[in-house]
Every structure is written in C-alpha cells, then in structure tokens.
Design goal:
Largest sheet: none
Order of helices and strands: HHHHHHHH
Strand content: under 5%
Helix content: over 70%
Length: 206
C-alpha cells in the first residue's frame, strides 16, 4: 500500500499538472488540429518550464540543506519551492503568449499562479496540500473548458475524481497531510481555475 501511495504521489506531482493539462487541451479541444510538431513544441515547452526547470532548482534547494527531504515535510521549508514554481508558471505564460495560444490557456496559467500565491500565503500559518491543489486545479480547468465548449465528458470527470481521491488518500496514508489539508488544497485549486475559465468565457463576449 505504501508503494502504491508513493507511486500515485509521483505520477500526480504538482509539477506535472500543467503538462497534463496542456496535453489534454491539445488532444481534446480544437487545438487538436495543430500539427504534431507544433503540439510537441507546446507540450514540451510546458513540461520544461513547469516541471524540469523548477524541479531542478527545487532539487538544488534541497541538496543545499535548506530542506530536510524531497517531500518538504516541514511547512516552513515550502516558501522557496512555491516561489520557484510560481516563477516557472510565469515563464510558461510568456512562452504560450509568444506562441499565440488562446486566451483561455493564458487565463488558466494565471489562475494556477494565483492559486499557488494563495497556497504560499496559507502555508505561512498552516500546511495545505500542494498535490491536491494541482489535481483540483486540473479538474477545475477541465470542467470550466468543457462548459466553455458545451461538452460533458462524464467518463473523464469520473476518472479524474477517482484519481483525486487516490491522490488525497495517498497523501493522508503517507502521513503528509490531514484530511482537512487535503480538502482545502483541492477546493483552492478547483475554485481558482474553474472561476478563471468562466471569466475567460465572459471575456470572449466583451
């Protein structure tokens, strides 16, 4: 069970959520018409800017002795990694802007950065689950964009909520978070991206 919980935590690490979201957008929205080479540039750029680069700097942060372990168990050690991830989201935003991606992609990246800023502020006083912020943000983005395009892939929603449940259960089982920290993380991530998608919808008609 512990092995399964660790694998789940790695597969759905917060640093991977933007990449997963971009791949889904390139596969199941009108962006699917892009040529493969363009899709690789977009998805690859998202992966490098929001997973590889922040992961590298966070690893250096840990190796320097500023943090005790890869899980950043101590709440006080999470401020710098949060900041690094927010900067990486900004870099991804700039890249997507240069690639002339649609407004809703840019808005969702902005919402992700905002959720991280709020999470960083909360973390000063109370430890909130970054894993659940990530999966919650992904689900909120997907539900919002499906609303934007008048789609209802209920099978995908069922699968995503099952995954969210597994991630939350894994974090609790591993002793990294309490149930309340898990619920709060999910709601924060979901609320930010879902609200942003609705705002992007309104923007289209201004």
């Amino acid at each position: 069970m512990k092995l399964f919980a660790n694998i789940t935590s790695i597969l759905f690490h917060p640093l991977l959520m933007v990449t997963y979201g971009m791949i889904l957008a390139l596969s199941f929205t009108y962006l699917a018409i892009y040529p493969l080479s363009m899709k690789l540039v977009i998805a690859g750029g998202a992966f490098i800017s929001t997973a590889v680069m922040p992961g590298f700097f966070i690893l250096l942060f840990i190796k320097s002795g500023a943090a005790g372990d890869l899980e950043l168990t101590d709440r006080k050690e999470r401020f710098v990694p949060y900041f690094i991830f927010i900067v990486s989201i900004g870099a991804c935003f700039y890249l997507m802007l240069k690639l002339m991606m649609p407004v809703w992609i840019l808005v969702l990246l902005g919402a992700t950065a905002i959720s991280l800023l709020i999470g960083m502020a909360i973390n000063i006083f109370w430890k909130i689950s970054a894993h659940l912020m990530g999966i919650g943000g992904l689900i909120g983005a997907i539900m919002g964009i499906c609303r934007l395009h008048q789609q209802n892939p209920y099978w995908a929603f069922i699968l995503l909520f099952i995954i969210a449940g597994l991630v939350g259960t894994s974090r609790i089982f591993l002793g990294r978070h309490t149930p309340m920290q898990v619920y709060a993380g999910f709601l924060l991530g979901f609320f930010c991206t879902f609200t942003a998608s609705i705002l992007s919808y309104i923007y289209l008609f201004i």
